[in-house]
Design goal:
The chain has 76 residues and is of the alpha+beta class. A 5-stranded antiparallel beta sheet has the order 4-3-2-1-5. The protein contains 2 helices and 5 strands, in the order βαβββαβ. The protein starts with 10 loop residues before the first strand and ends with a strand. It has one domain: SH3 type barrels, CATH 2.30.30.90. β3 and β4 form a beta hairpin. The protein is globular, with a radius of gyration of 11 Å.
């Protein structure tokens, strides 16, 4: 499953960060790294961007970028 498919309120663990070059580096620099817990908090009215919560802060990313982040849903 990728991050853009994660339902609002569900928690997941990042398994892999895809993308190439600058995009991948930008995602990693924002703290989106493997083994990090992430939760989708909000989705904009038109569906893009999405707001995620990780490492005690909120981050908005484009759906296109979220498709490059592989996650695994966790049970809480």
């Amino acid at each position: 499953m990728t991050l853009d498919q994660l339902p609002i309120g569900k928690t997941a663990v990042i398994r892999a960060v895809g993308g190439e070059g600058i995009l991948r580096c930008r995602l990693l620099d924002m703290g989106i790294i493997p083994k990090t817990r992430v939760m989708v908090q909000k989705i904009a009215p038109m569906g893009d961007p999405i707001e995620i919560r990780l490492r005690d802060y909120e981050l908005s990313i484009r759906v296109e970028d979220a498709r490059n982040i592989e996650v695994e849903v966790t049970e809480e």
